[in-house]
Every structure is written in C-alpha cells, then in structure tokens.
Amino acid sequence: MSEVDQAITTLEKEIQAKIQELNRLKELVSAYPDLKRYKGRWEKVAYYSPSVNSLVKNYDKRHNCGCCADSPLEIWPFIETPQGKVYSDPPCFTIGERSDYGDVPCDDWEKALKKANIPEEIIEHLQQYFESCKESALEYEVYHDVD
C-alpha cells in the first residue's frame, strides 16, 4: 500500500468516526433538547442537561490535579444512555479535597447537590465514602502513632 493509499484509508476512518459522533450527538439533542457541551480541565468533554439531574444514578469521581497534595475532589453525576453519558447540570461538583490521610469533604458540600436536585442515594453514597476515608485516617493515626 502506498503512502497516498494509507492517507486515504486514514482519512476515510476519520470521516467515519466524525459521522458516528455527529449521529450520536443528533440523537442526544433529540432526546435532550436542552443539551449543552462543557469542556473542562484535561480536555474532558461532558454533554449535560438539567433534565437528567433527578435521574442520575452514577458519577465519575476524580481529583482535579494529579500532582497537588490538596487537589480538589470532583464528582460528575450522569445517566448512561444508548448514546453515552449525559451529565447533570452543572456537570461537575467539587465536594472535597485530597489530604495526607485521604479525601476530606468541603463544608456544606451536600448543599450544591441538593440544590441541583441530585438524588439522595448519590449524596448518601458520598457520605459513606467520606466516612470510610475518615475511618481509614483514624486507623492510620493509631497504627502509626501519629499525633
């Protein structure tokens, strides 16, 4: 295969991928007319809609920065659709930060989620997560005799 043939094959694959993405987005907009696009840090793209806020069942959880010791902890609530994830509005909530002993919650972190009508089951799950972080930190302190 010549270099020109390889270039044509590559372009055809790129075009097909773009057409698939176009069709996916058209289907999402049809299902969620209020769909918006968010592009965040590290090139994360999220399509989000306020109409899914009360329906979200899952979330992505990540630290905003990989190198900072006190990196903000974010959650990105979403529903899974045949066309991919649709995130809540807002798509991202900062709920805590990393510490030397695990993640610690921000003050009143639940308020923003409740205000956005994020289901209580997600809030409860995150409360349990923070509680387990706290327990791990206490165990670490006892085991390592940290004052």
Blueprint (SSEs and pairs):
Layout: H1 3-31, E1 36-39, E2 45-48, E3 58-63, E4 72-81, E5 84-87, E6 93-99, E7 102-105, H2 109-115, H3 120-144
Antiparallel strand pairs: 1-2, 3-4, 4-5, 4-6, 6-7
Which regions have little confidence, pLDDT < 50, spanning 5+ residues? none
Largest sheet: 5 strands, antiparallel
> What is the string of helix and strand elements?
HEEEEEEEHH
Number of domains: 2
Count of individual beta strands: 7
- Can you count the helices? 3
Structural class assignment: alpha+beta
Assembly state: single chain
Task: Write up what this structure looks like.
This protein is of the alpha+beta class and 147 residues long. It has 2 domains: 1-31; 34-144, no CATH class. It has helices at 3-31, 109-115, 120-144, and strands at 36-39, 45-48, 58-63, 72-81, 84-87, 93-99, 102-105. The strands form 2 sheets. Strands 3, 4, 5, 6 and 7 form a 5-stranded antiparallel beta sheet that branches. The longest helix has 29 residues, at 3-31. The protein is flat and about 65 Å long. The N and C termini lie far apart (68 Å). The model has no long low-confidence stretch (mean pLDDT 90).
